Amino acid sequence: MTAIAAPSASATTGSGRLPRRMPWMLLIASFAISAVVFAVANLGADPADFNIALAVVVGMLIYMVLIFAISSIAESRRRAVDRLMTALVSAAFVLALLPLISLLYTVVINGLARFDTEFFTFSMRNIVGAGGGAIHALWGTVLITLGATVISVPIGLMTSIYLVEYGQGRKLARGITFLVDVMTGIPSIVAGLFIYSVFALLVAPGTRIGVMGSLSLSVLMIPVVVRGSEELLRIVPNELREAAYALGVPKWLTILRVVLPTSIAGITTSVMLAVARVIGETAPLLLTVGMVQGMNLNMFSGQMATLPVFSYMQSKYPGVPPDAYLDRAWAAALALILIVMVLNLIARWVAKVFAPKTAGR
User: Residue 136 and residue 24: Cα distance in Å, rounded?
Assistant: First the structure.
């Protein structure tokens, strides 16, 4: 009987293999080719008109063609298909990031024109046309957001503690959960109208002060803090609570010394997400805080300026020359993004410092 020879490895797979760095080199080269093509097409135009999103998409397409062709020649068709599928999955991830990349690029390119010392040291009092700054709006944003955080975090955290530690299975807890879910989807303009109506009835119609802005933002923050903190408190192992109870520690002290420190890292992140959710809101602040051209640090008297409203007013009602107003609007947007980034960095630092230490750390 004649034995049937097995097909050789060279008949089904390529004899070569791409160097480990080759895919990264091809990716960099693809993005470089795409960037050069779009830069040449954008010669003489405003740098802000450079279409970074389309350049990234074209770069990924060039990479997929190159990696598939080169892998088919140097390796095998099976490995080439595998590399192509990996590139497609990576391209899907990049595609999801494109709106963020495009947004950041546009804001940075347009905002740097007025991102100078004058912008952070002067207000718009007695300023017509070019010049001026947004120091009054910057302080207004910080104070109003800080006030909203001081109001929202204790209420939201205590509500989540009740839902997890005391209210399991009770009708009141189910009702609170339902209301929190409903409040999560409330449009921001509704929160502003609610606070404006309350102060119109209690104080006087047309009242606009800084504390009204904090209250309207807290209406939006509280549901986010409650839902985030609730989920994080639920994942604390029950064994930790039972160990504290076995030592005779009362429940309130167990929550304070065991449950909260264990979940403090996640709770801090949840609070920062809530702050990022409201710090850029414009509609409720237009209704409750208004807009002024000078500095006002009194939360309980007079209108205040905020960065979102400042940016909106500068772009919505540009004067002469209009470019000066639009530059200030973009600079305010860039400052707002940087504030959110700094807050997230602070949150990570707080989470790292106050998170419970383990043997491996």
Answer: 47
Question: Hunting for tokens 């609610």 — which residue is that?
Answer: 194
> Who's near 229: CB < 8 A, 6+ residues apart?
156, 157, 160, 161, 263, 267, 270
Q: Radius of gyration over alpha carbons of the chain, in Å?
A: 28
- Length, in residues, of the chain: 361
Which domains are assigned to the chain? 17-113 (no CATH), 135-354 (1.10.3720.10)
Q: Does 325 have pLDDT greater than 80?
A: yes
Give the span between the Cα atoms of 231 and 128, in whole angstroms: 51
Q: Which residues contact 224 (CB under 8 A, 6 or more apart)?
A: 156, 184, 270, 273, 274, 277
At 286-324, the pLDDT tens digits run 999 988 888 889 899 889 999 999 999 888 888 778 888
23-30, long-range: CB < 8 A, 24+ apart: 23/67, 23/83, 26/63, 26/66, 26/67, 26/70, 27/59, 27/63, 29/66, 30/59, 30/60, 30/62, 30/63, 30/66
The pLDDT score that the predictor gives to residue 355 is: 65
Q: Determine if the peptide bond prior to 321 is cis (ω within 30°).
A: yes
Distance CA 223, CA 277 (A): 11
Angle between helices 260-278 and 210-234 (to 10 degrees): 140
Residue 227, SS3 per DSSP = helix
66: nearest Cα among 76, 80, 55: 80
Residues 6+ apart with CB under 8 A from 189: 283, 284, 287
Collapsing DSSP states into helix, strand and coil, what is residue 278? helix
Cα distance between residue 49 and residue 20, in whole Å: 36
Instruction: Quickly state the pLDDT bin for 357 (edges 50, 70, 90).
Output: low
Type of residue at 327 = D
148-163 residues labelled b (16+ CB within 10 A) or e (exposed): bbebbbeebbebbbbb
The whole-model pTM stands at 0.78
Q: What are 271's two structure tokens?
A: 């609070």
